[in-house]
Design brief:
Layout: H1 8-13, E1 20-21, H2 33-41, E2 47-51, H3 56-63, E3 67-72, H4 84-91
Parallel strand pairs: 1-2, 2-3
Length: 101
């Protein structure tokens, strides 16, 4: 059996602009940050994100301008408060039609 089934770059290439995406982990635990950074590096746009308790993974995608919509039960940094990029976008909604969050 191969140790690596695919590269991060190849995996992220499967995600297209506007796709519905979720990641593993809960809040700060087991979030696939290298994969998230690869999505940012590739410049993905208008992603629709779904998760129960996302944290820094979704917040990084929001801050990088990759997100159109989020469905989540809570998006925060546990005892550290609200996720900063998420909070900024909620307080100051974007006028960018392609990136409305």
């Amino acid at each position: 059996m191969k140790k690596v089934l695919t590269t991060l770059e190849e995996a992220a290439n499967l995600i297209k602009d506007g796709d519905l995406v979720t990641t593993g982990g809960a809040t700060f635990h087991r979030a696939p940050m290298e994969f998230v950074r690869e999505l940012v590096r590739q410049g993905k746009k208008n992603l629709n994100l779904v998760d129960r308790e996302p944290a820094m993974d979704f917040d990084l995608l929001i801050g990088a301008g990759c997100v159109a919509k989020i469905r989540a039960g809570m998006l925060a940094f546990e005892v550290f408060g609200m996720a900063p990029n998420f909070r900024r976008h909620v307080r100051e909604p974007s006028k960018d039609k392609e990136n409305p969050i």
